[in-house]
Amino acid sequence: MKDQQLTFTRFIACFIVVVSHFGFDGETIIFPLNYIPHHEVFHYGGLAVLYFFMLSGYVLYVSNKKKFTSYTFPKISTFWLLRFARIYPVYLLSFIVMAVLGTRRYGDINLSTIEWLSNFTLTNSWYDGKIITEPKMINGTSWSLSVELIFYLLCPFLFYLIDHRVFRVFFLLSPFFFYFVERPLTREYNWYLLLMYHVFFIFGLLVAHYKPAFEAFLSRIKYKKLFQYAFTIVVYSALLILTMKFKVSSWYRTIYIVPVFALMILGVASFRSLLLDLYNTWICRKLGEISYTIFLFQLPVYLYLYARYFHEDSLNVKFWKTFVILLVLSYFINLLFEEPVRNWVKNRLVGPEKGGRKKEEALSSKL
How far apart are CA 200 and CA 365, in angstroms? Predict the structure, then answer.
């Protein structure tokens, strides 16, 4: 399946997030990224998270939309349970690890009872206020999972709406709301941020909905390879220009990246090339599959190893040594914990028919 080519892009985005958190020392970036012109784009880890959001919407549509021939509670509850099994067990493990590190003073964790509860239940991004800023989160990455959880709850309803053209048009026009409404995209306006984040999820659904039309268009093109190369150059040039020239990492301009991410996903999911064939190799697919675990465990692993063992090393040495350890740890967490728990939920709680091993569900679990 060409959609499998998207799996490795999760790892690329995850690596950018890790670099943005731990790969800088002032203006100095780790080797060999320091040789890349305008390497300051690696500061923009938030953009990679927004790509996660759009890709999540795409994958959920591809892997689940056909199942919603009727919107009954059993179908919807099964969908919710499987998505919960996808994100929560590994998050809970990282939550426990961070709590233990906090008791040993490897992190600054000073939370009230309600803040502990909101972190435990992944509801810490559901309401206004400074509670969602990093000092109020036991794991700084959890804000994105909290946002994603809202999307999972709304997803069956959004599937239903996308079946109707009038709602598709409304969703396609939704980014213009952020172009013309002058309100700062800050944590103090959390409801506004949540709206913007969900535009990325919804556009992921729309990209998946229109992908067959895009592939039909490709089938009618005479010079397919030439179009593919031109398409790729234009899309990635637009991405670089937006990140370097217009500073879309500033929250009020982030919405500009929506069409670029949409075209990126369409291209990777529809084209064939030597590079995309490389994305389909076992190691690239596996790196993509463990990217969620990498994303969640980056903070505890870097926090602990930087403070305990590598504090006297140079930035390059401690970053890359820690990153290798993070990769190995994430692989074994995925192998020994994440996949067994997810399969147990599918086979025991959902049932073999609902939680079977269809290609679409395999794609969903890996992406």
Answer: 20
